[in-house]
Amino acid sequence: MKVQVNLDGVQVGIGNESFFCKGEHNMTEFSVNKERCIKCGECIEDCVMNIIAFESEYPAIIQGKESECIQCEHCFAVCSEGAVSILGLNPDNATKLEGNLPETSKLEVLMKGRRAVRRYLKEPIPWETISGLLDVVVNSPTGRNTRQNLFTVVSDPLVMDKIREETMSGIRRAVANNAIPQGFEFYSFVVDAWDAGKDIIFRGAPHMLAVSAPKDAPCPEADTLIALTYFELLAQSMGIGTLWNGLLKWAVTAIVPELRKKIGIPEDHHIGYFMVFGRPAVRYYRTVQRGPAMINRVII
Fold it and tell me: Residues of CATH 3.30.70.20 domain(s) within the chain?
């Protein structure tokens, strides 16, 4: 499902192809290609809920147990022959892991070389690139496979400008009316910087992403932060800069809460965090040198 929210005539895209689309029913559509199946039993052994067993020589969901499936797709992924299908998925459309995983050394460099980007070019990133990123990020771990995160994304720089203006106007009103919550008094300096031509909150980024999840999910805070971490690492591997934006999260949740409704984040959702992103106007040439790690090694 894609939602479009109108901000005074300007369209804000909230792109989430899979927001509660998959798995809110008990039909697992589990099937086995008997010509491919080698009867190894791996799908049975790896089933988290122990609801798959051999039936007439081939794996099948135990009668009456279909509703217990948590749709983790382990049975689908663990089958070496691509014989198992679940949720109507075609194993031939999945990417094989062997030969396609990144080298450890290069992944290490990506993780060490990741930087918080605070200088951006004005050029927008194509929507196809952004939606492609999110199609990968939707694979991030969650506490419940059938309850996925909502990705509220601003893809149009003109919309971003409007949100920027409305956010700053709201903060300005709160400062003028002495309505800034205790502990957030520093936002008066954010307004001063804005008046001096410095965008401390958005940093001139052309795009914004907020990840939220239902408050009644098992672990909405963790789910959303993991998803944003996936997004950041994949984005930076593509030359896209990102910034975890606590100033924006606090502004929306504590100072300008009306903005939350305008951009379409449901009231029953927990907002994990905001992230701004775009093409960097800065280039970093080497990793930083942090560490060693603080380690509590348990030996009993």
Answer: 31-86
Q: State both tokens at 124.
A: 């927008």
Q: Inter-axis angle of helices 187-195 and 157-176, to 10 degrees?
A: 120
pTM of the shown model:
0.88
Residue 182, classified by CB atoms within 10 Å of its CB into exposed (0-12), middle (13-18) or buried (19+), is: exposed
Q: Is 112 exposed, middle or buried (0-12, 13-18, 19+ CB in 10 A)?
A: middle
**Distance in angstroms (rounded) separating the CA atoms of residues 110 and 236:** 8
pLDDT digits (tens, 9 = 90+) for 182-237: 999 999 999 999 999 999 999 999 999 999 999 999 999 999 999 999 999 999 99
- Which of the listed CATH numbers 3.40.50.720, 3.40.109.10, 1.10.730.10, 2.60.200.20 matches domain 2-20+104-278? 3.40.109.10
d(CA 171, CA 174): 5
Query: Looking at per-residue confidence, does 14 or 121 come out higher?
Result: 121
CATH topology of domain 31-86: Alpha-Beta Plaits (3.30.70)
- Give the bridge partners for 60, in sequence order: 53
Q: What share of the chain is helix, strand, coil (3-state, %, to 5)?
A: 35, 20, 50
Tokens of 196: 């001096």
Q: List the structure tokens of 89.
A: 């998925």
